[in-house]
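Lab notebook, page 48
Experiment: co-folding of the full assembly
Goal: obtain a model of how the components sit together before planning crosslinking
Operator: M.T.
Materials (sequences as entered):
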Amino acid sequence: MIRALRTLPLSLKLPLLGAGMMVLVGAIASQQVLSALGRVQDARLRELAALHVEGLSVALGPLVLRRDIWEVYDTLDRAAEESAGHRMVLTAVADETGRVLAATDPRRVPMDSMIDEVAQGAAPLDELSVGASRATVRLLAPLTYQGRRVGRIVTELDVSDLQQERWRALWLLLLGNTLATCILAGLGYVAMRRMLRPVSSIARHMSGAEGEPQPIAEADIPDGDGELARLARTYNGMVRDVAAKADVERRLGERERFVALGRLSSSLAHEINNPLGGLLNATDTIRTFSHRPEVVETSADLLERGLRHLRDVARVTLDQNRLARGGNPLTTDDLEDVHLLIGPELKRLDQHVDWSAPDRLPAGLNLPAAPVRQIMLNLLLNASAAAGPGGCVRFLAGIRQDGLDIVISNTGPPMSDAARARLLSDEALSPGGGVGLRLVRDLVKGLDGQITHARRGDLTTVRVVLSAGAGGADA
Amino acid sequence: MTRGPSRRAALLLAASALASVPVRGVGQAPFRLGLTPVFLDNDSMVIDSLSAALSDAMERPIELVQRRTYAEVTGLLLTGALDAAWLCGFPYLQHADALDLLAVPVWRGQPLYRSYLIVGEDVAADGLADLRGATHAFSDPDSNSGYLVTASDLIAMGEHPETWFSRSIFTFGHRNVVRAVADGLVTSGSVDGYVWEALANVEPDLTRHTRIIGKSEWLGFPPVCARRDNVASEPVVAFQAALLTLSESDTGRAALAALQLDGFEVAPEGIFDGIAARMRLMDS
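Observation: model returned without errors.
Model output:
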């Protein structure tokens, strides 16, 4: 029940809450009214009973003293006939010993019977109450004459009309409260809906059709400078900021990719330039020793190997740029390409590399090649930079039951707080830092993967776990 | 019963008395007539009707004096506070040496009535013998039908009212006796037969809840009396004449109709012998 209430929209929950409060207030008010009515009725009943008893005391005092049974009866009988609304159902009078002298209904309370029998359940005047269970109440009062107690009076009063009045009041209150609650709850619902319409609009725009926040049209923003108008404008400002931030991050990501390529290009230039000297020497040797077939053959082989190496380097570089826009699935060739791309940089820094990659990837892995390559390349570049000249970098790619496990470690100083924040959190980027690690985080998030960081001894390890078949659309 | 000569003689006496005194107007002292609690003593229309009829006949105002008990009215009459009183045969006989009879009412053709022994409609009793231990209502200790008859019957049975009944009360009114029995206040009651019959006509809902289980012999109807030393005075003589001729005027007939009586007549000789016999029984 409470869970169902929590899931209700605010525009329904608030009117329901209001209606509930009204029911509560109505119940308390009804209880107060009924309680007040009961007190008024009790006071009225006591006043009437007191007048009755006082009147009878004055009239019956001397008669009871004289034991004039007929006069006592006659007086009671006439008083009963003149009783307003016949509230007094029965009155019995006894002498001081409790023996009944006369009653308005002699058959019910015979002469000379004991008044205690009819006084059972009778209350004294100050405790007389209408109650709710019985249609009659009984009063037991002393009969005093000239300051002396000469007998007792028991009077049975019909209170059914007072009880009916109370029930009538209760039903009217219930009916009135129900009607008022229903009407006011309905009006409250409509008013709340109107008041909360801008909030509903913001909620709708926050979860737009493409899953991205959409700004609220100016026409839909409430007039004036109220809270809701300010909220809508603030929301629009936030939407614009988020869009601008996403744009900046996208452009930074693009730049980072080119930065990475730029960093690689110098190494690649060396990779191309280094064999060029040998290749040119080989062509000179061929020209010089063109008459010697064995030398030409050897030089031609050397020339072919050099050109093939240059072709591979060129292909990988082209692939890296092309795959960024493609949607090809990850293969073992991609892992080898990354190895080839990072190789010159590691060699330049004279770093030792431990490389371990699976020979084949399972068919169901289905990870997009471009983001995974970018993740591995960025982490390797970062590890290489952290390891420094002569350092050690390890790459371990393993197949898990549910995806791909990439572990990249390096020696050297630990990762800075700023770098860890970029890699592991969504905190705002601090000025001056690169966006390579934040790009890794965004790409891993896009693939529903997880990143963990560990530092043991002088070894810093970053582990990326990617689930099989995740994030194809983001590649 | 030979009532004719007595009535004529009384009428002549009254006529001569009226002829010998001047007619007195409204300014005269009112004639004070005491009433015992007869059945309609609480009916103002009956009282007014009787007062108007007598006042018209006597051409003087009538002051009807009512008291709760027979003893009070009898006492007022004996002390001279009343000019005449409508008593009962029992108190008349108690004070026969000081009182004279002026007239007796005629009910259903004779100046006689009976005492009734009544019980509640649902009481299983067929006579006085069945009422041992019951609660009983008497009318007045000086009432013939409302006390003397039942008490003397019990004496004749060798019993006494105080011990025969578990409790006996006096209601000081024959109508009250009927009410006490009908309402269930008491089991049984002793009541004037004339009153019960009259009530059966005007208040049948009251008598319907009672049942007659015993009737006495015919006894002299409650008479109208005056002090013997005052019986020849002009107002008393005029009053007697007015009573005896009540049926001759419209107002008188209206009063008699209200009282459910035929008229008044001079009391026949020996009319109260039955009551006297019961009194002797009580004294024995």
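Interpretation: Chain B has two domains: 4-111+220-283, 115-216.
Next step: discuss with group before ordering constructs.
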